[in-house]
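Justification of computing resources. Each target in the renewal requires a structure prediction run like the one illustrated here; the chain below, 1020 residues long, is used simply to show the kind of job we budget for.
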Amino acid sequence: MHLNCHSYHSLRYGTIPIKDLVRLGVENNAKVMALTDINTVTGIYSFVQECNKAGIKPIVGMEFRCNNNLKYIGLAKNKDGISKMNRFLTGHNFDGTPLPDQAPDFQDTIIIYTLKNLPENLRENEYIGIRPEELVKLFHSEWKEKMHKMVILAPVTFRKLKADPEKNIKAYDEYGLHKVLRAVDSNTLLSKLAENDYCAISEKMFPAEVLLEMYKDYPLLIENTKKIIDQCKYELEKKKRNKQHYKANKEEDLELLTALAFEGLEIKYKGSEKAKARAEKELKVIDELGFSGYFLITWDIVQYSRSQRFLHIGRGSGANSIVSYCLGITDICPLELDLYFERFLNLNRKVPPDFDIDWSWKERDIILEYIFNKYGRDHVAFCGTNVEFKYRSIFREVGKVFGLPKEELDILAKSPMKEDMKNSVAELVVKYGMMMEKYPNQRSMHACGILISEEPITNCSVLEMPPKGFPIVHFDMHTAEDIGFDKFDILSQRGIGHIDDSVKLIRKNRGIEVDIRDTSISKNEASCNEFLALGKTIGCFYIESPAMRGLLRRLKCDNYKVLVAASSIIRPGVAQSGMMKEYIFRHNHPDKFEYFHEVFEQELGETYGIMVYQEDVIKIALHFGGLAAADGDILRRAMSGKGRSLDALQKVKDNYFESCAKKGHSFELSQEVYRQIESFAGYSFCKAHSASYAVESYQSLYLKVHYPIEFMVAVINNQGGFYRTEVYVHEARMSGGTIHNPCVNKSEFETALYGKDIYLGFMHLQGLEAKTANRIQKEREENGDFISLENFINRIPIGLEGLQILIFIGAFRFTGKRKNELLVIARLLLVNFKPENRGWVLLQEPVKEYKLPVLERSVFEDVFDEIELLGFPVSCSPFEVLQTKYRGDVMAKDLLKNHKKQVRMLAYLISRKHVPTKMGAMYFGTWIDADGEFFDTAHFTDSLAKYPFLGGGCYLLLGNVEVDYHFPTITVVKMAKMPFIPDPRYSNDKSHQYRTQEQLREDVSMTNRKPYPQEHEINL
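Resulting structure tokens:
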């Protein structure tokens, strides 16, 4: 009888999670429930599953609303009914038109109107819903004659909770929560909500018998409601929903996949029998699981990418497959790294395969357009995702509807339980905020998950069109997997942009064609390995952070396999477990440890007997425990939290101990190995993933080593990586590039390169509009260089403010005039300038020349202009504008010789990483010295209390050098920020003379997990 239930997927309206809603139905003896969330089908699949478990008949549908006005409720008689409603609402979502007052002539659907919005004529499948409080109206004659079209309508929106004085919960607190959600949605004060903004207080669930008692005098309504219930039957089909075949059928798919795999096999393995056997084994499993089409669609996308000369990186567990390697989806040889196919696919694994493919962020949308056009926009969509109310933002949102001022909102967001905030309003804010935690707030697009459906995708979901321009379904990736979709992960990253743009710049600047896709030229290349061992990796994907550069130096990493291991052990879980420290020790002292068991030496000798990768779990389960590789993968998935069946885990565990006993292992030994597997599996990292990262790291490092200026310009143009632009500009200078400020005749929107001359792009100028920057470049390309300031003003629509930015940065230095002179000329010209006169004329009237007084200008004025407009100095280094000439007693290059010594250094702050410890906050700092060399520091809580960081700039450091496996770190005892010279531009205004240097930035990264690493883990 409950035909209009809302869950919390009725965003900012409903208050009940799906499981709780079904549980509520059980408590109220409901035999039938209909989920009709507002303009969405997000929850219908989990609702049907929960109802089936609870023995309740599920009905699915939607409540159609427009601007919070209820139009009608749709109930699906079958799967075609929900499909038609999905298509109807999708059409309105896409074109932005309001919903009509009367529903279309739906087939396979029941439509229910309310008394307030009744159309003149009702179709056969349309009814009038009568709420309990509206029964008194039925005595009126106008309604009596329509009673044959009336049904029971008892909406459910909130739960009537049990009062609990100890927890300060009142019976109708969830009704209050509903009102709070409505106020958040309306962006208004709770006190200003109108009555039609929120639901009636009757919208709680009544027990089935109570509901029937209410309507006992209207048997026709009960009969009509039962008739509707009998007509509605929705069953969740267990089937594959992806596009099933790339060709016409399964057989043709396998034939093509086999042909492509063996074609690649011949190219990459030259007839190797081992490789052929592996490929045949994989093809058999792929065919049995029905994934040939999935592989071929992925191959097709990659082929299109290659045809456009785009660079892609295939990573993730898909790199465990030799077939994906032969198809060119991935660049990792699974035989070289002993990668198990079972980690990716096996007959016991019911979850779909998962290729993660990266493109440059500049090219990803072109790939997406291809997918949508090739496979049909009716069949392709992004996975959705629910953006939940987040812990801190909740209190801001709720605090606003209670009218709290910003100051109190800030305090609540940071410390909601603070004692001095415990007044009645603040307590309400905290109470409702805690109730809302984990509630969905809005729907959004999954970052990368694409669904390609066999049937029109609206058979499964309503679609929305976000600003990005690609449609999204209403459910998330987990629901997609549950109902039979295998998603394609189409990702983007700036690292590929660095590589791709470098190759283009090298071609343009040097006329050299670098085939960076051929990984054999970069992987394990000798000079790359030298740079790796020294941690000279700024700008390189995944290996440029201070922590990674420190790890590379500790390991003296000089080959591909060690880099693969480093890419894994840097991950938080491995480092936190102490495995990173143990790996570093064993790598540097291979003769000072013993293997736990001979199997660990045989199978994990590459990583000194330490389980570094997820694949290692499978290896130990296989070779020590005697389990099948597929069972080892079940073990890994279950322990990492990805396995959903405890029964399957218990079965594999039992098999493990039985098999160990058969192999002659003692129970105690078997138990200890199982404990190690168990403790490791939760934080392990996929080896294929690490290997993919390592290959991309080598590609970027190869370009950095051999074409450093082009590479750094590409990094700058892709808006950097771990660090801010200034760091990459510094690195470009250290690589031999000459840095120039933006120039209207040389610069482009992005940074431009001419030989070794680097002209910073207009995009870096703070305050200059992007459209002006692009217009300058376009006008120059079409009509030639600008010949004077007057000529520029005549050709480019620009106001005085934009012109001043260009003058102050020196963009008109080609004129030979000083900045102050140009400013005066600009003002004189723009006073009388008429925009309608802009453009080329046959005879340009000469501008009147003004004799201006010579105004002397300090060279340092330019430096402070640069800091103000770019955020960093270009004309000189930050050290040259310090008041002191002192540069420290020791330089970074000498730190290795000063182990255990106290040193004093002058350095420019690059970045610092916040690390919470049991004793309080500590930081790791990264700096450059006056020679431009990088070094690292550690700052503990006691030192920071007296000598804190005070923003970007230069500091004098006093500290003790600790060399930990070839990597020096200074534990700072004292530090002081050093003042710049007074800003000469404000020589008459003392209050402004030191403000500009406050604009110098630093990169600060936070660690929000448990204390990591602790002092003993970093040997400090």
